[in-house]
Amino acid sequence: MSSSRIHLSRRQMLKIGVLGGGFSLGKFLQLQADGGKQDSERSAILVFLGGGPSHQDTFDLKPGAPDEYRGEFSPIATATPGIEICEHLPLLAQRSKKYSLIRGISHNLAAHSLGTSYLMTGNRPTPVVKYPLYGSVVSKEFPAANDLPSFVSIDRPVEGPGYLGPEYGPLSTGEKPRYGQPFRVRGITLGDGLTIGKYRSRQELLSDIDTAFDGYERLDDSVRGLDRFSKQAYQIISSPRARSAFDLTLESDQQIDRFGRHDFGQSLLLTSRLIEAGVRFVTVLLEGWDTHQDNFNTLGRELLPRLDQSLAALFDRLDQQGRLDSTSVLVTGEFGRTPKVNDRAGRDHWAQAMVALMAGGDVHGGQVIGATNDKAEGPVDEGFSPDDLAASFLQNIGIDPKTEYASNVGRPITVIRDGAPIDELFG
């Protein structure tokens, strides 16, 4: 950041909103807009546990509940006195001071598609407005350098950029990285004998054609988005920095083993490389949590050990490189699971209670915020909404959740319409 620009810590930024004189966080961010809102310190990661993880078998165990509610797992102590999590998360238990748990998050959309849309945008789905992903908002506010994508979705984009338009959509890798196999990123890797020189020639020809039809692409948002992606694809392909960021063969065996030689481990290793290179936002999926049957075997043997190993490794790497203070991390699914175990040793959809994990930025680690009742059925007191969680996530990144954008419905829309940041996360 140049010396001519205003620079305050994120903690100072969050305090601006309570100062007098009408100088709000939103106005401060407007000042930061000079020069294209380039702020190399800001980035974020969404780890989405697709399918709906069981809150009472992960981070909100109820060992005193009746057998048919308690389940098969036992709690273990963490590095923070008084906080316990599942026995299959020993590495995360040792690192409890690096994150906060938010228990008692509650909503009523127990369908996968609706719940996913809600938790990935922070707004209840509506047929009138298509809300943007968190990463699309970050991409608009804090674009990356020209030779890097601002927003990457590893594997596939679950949701889209909504009313912000396709130019703020994610670059989808098209697949997950797999250990021992070359990783080809859709739209970045050159194939079929196409060299950068040949690609440049094609781009020059397209540029000549574009000049002849200058202005027509402005008539349609989708065309405008495609034009942007075409140009950025060339910039990314031509950039050694971008190509290096996606190249996991540059990592040592020690780092590969640290994250895990499985899809999720390699995805989080790739995530760390992208953040280090300057990508602003990365979404990673760990799916399979829709455990209507055989819940405890699926979690205990597969999902929880992978989550534990890889997420702990991500926290360690971010921390060791001094990036955890500037990288906001949110781990969530679309809802929780039923308090009572069904007759197939599974748990069904349950949106009335769920848990999320947040780390990095100004989040105070080593704490639990909120609570559910003794059977994990619902929050104690009012609990929190996905809107509150989203507002907290964006504020931690440095974006005022009450920012308004123009939209295609003829009126400005607030980024997070309802809800407010959870103050205890930052206090």
Short description:
With 427 residues, the chain is of the alpha/beta class. It has one domain: Alkaline Phosphatase, subunit A, CATH 3.40.720.
Give your account of this protein's structure:
With 427 residues, the chain is an alpha/beta fold. It has one domain: Alkaline Phosphatase, subunit A (3-Layer(aba) Sandwich). It has helices spanning 10-16, 25-32, 67-70, 90-94, 112-121, 134-141, 196-212, 221-238, 240-245, 253-259, 263-277, 295-320, 386-397; strands at 43-48, 75-77, 84-86, 99-105, 151-153, 171-172, 281-285, 327-332, 336-337, 349-350, 354-359, 367-369, 404-405, 413-414. It has an 8-stranded mixed β-sheet with strand order 6-5-7-1-8-11-4-12, with helices on both faces. It has a two-stranded antiparallel sheet with strand order 2-3. A hairpin with a 6-residue loop joins strand 2 (75-77) and strand 3.
